[in-house]
Amino acid sequence: MSNTQRSPALATLIAAALAASSVQTETAHAADQDLAVTIYTDNLALVQDHRSIDLTGGKQRIEFENVSAQIRPETVSLAARDLSIVEQNFDYDLLSPEKLMEKAVGHTVTIIRTNPGTGAETRETAQVLATNGGVVLKIGDHIEVLRDDGLPARVIFDKVPDNLRARPTLSVTVNGAHRGSEPATLSYLTPGLGWRADYVALFDEASAKIDVQGWVTLSNSSGITYDNAKTLLVAGNPNVTGNTNNPGPRYYRPQPRANLAQAGTESGTRERLGDYYLYPLAERTTIANLQTKQVSFLDVRGVPAEHGYEFRNSWMATSNTPLSAQVVYRFSTSAHAGLGDQLPAGTLRFYMRDKRGDPQFIGESHIDHTPMGSVLSLSTGDAFDVKVQPTVEKRTRLGFAHWQTDMKYVLTNALPKAVTVSVLQGGLWGDTSIKAESQKSTRRNADEAEWSVEVPANGTRTLTASFESQF
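RESULT FIELD:
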């Protein structure tokens, strides 16, 4: 029986059972619990739970309630003076109405029915036979299935099963060398906690400057709430076994547009941990389960920025129709005339004010972890008025596996101002060389040549180039 199909009688029965049982098993949180959470960007967090434990001396079991429901038990560490761990168990079979009935199969319970007219109660002893799609009971010498008759009923259980918990619980069997209260730290890794960086950029075309605000977006689906936690964010990608960031072989793999035009070489004052950067939250915060929370970490105004256009063409790509160039914005993360910080990976959303002064969304782009002093070149989408039509005009065989390819690029601009378009021709690997060109190019890398083409207002420009290759 699904949750939406559960009968009122069964719902009343289960709800009453849960209420009766939870009172008997509830355990108060440690009054002195102190949480520190280190959150990584790849859905992973290190939880350090500081609290006092009462040691009896010798062997005993200590239960830690309210740990993450997604805890990785193999990563658990319990640190306390003169304490050694014998074994540990993680109980994640949580107490719920359905689970309580499932665990009662084969056992005897007491059912109390209330007459809605008189309020009189009747008690019956029943054996739970099955809960497959509904509750089947043996009462006396007959079998009964709970009916959808609307009659109020509840069930009384003798106890909550030992392996059924109201909250995720880690039990640790330890050997202690002495008696008394002792401070201890429970540490473990858990998925379900993560963070990402989100950026909002407002570009002013008149001044050619950009304002950028950065937000940390925290998300928690680990199953518990972390109350008043000291929170530290780590920007980087620690390797986790079975979760590699290696994209595989690059040969013949289409590559996305590179947003990092130039890698930075500046060092700042931000704290580092090995090869990662740390972003501590200024104040303790509560990260509620199933909650998304945002905290500001960057607010920079008046950074110089360039607005331009870019067109990328793959090897021997030709088009019967003009294609849109991409709209591109370039700016620096340098401490001088830039954002002045290391940027964690995230999404940067661009806005621009319209004639009424209202900021309007114009596109977004993803950035990777970016060192300070870098130059970012981010595309926000396709241009409406700036087009490029690439054409393979001729292929001439010069010898065995030796060819000449003549290309033409027609650029058009419907804007009332001149624009500069970066035309990028890819596929120039191997022995490919440029033998002739209508204007001088620069070689970005072994695979790509670039021409910066000035296109007049409401005008057209034509670029030509001839390539020699072994294919």
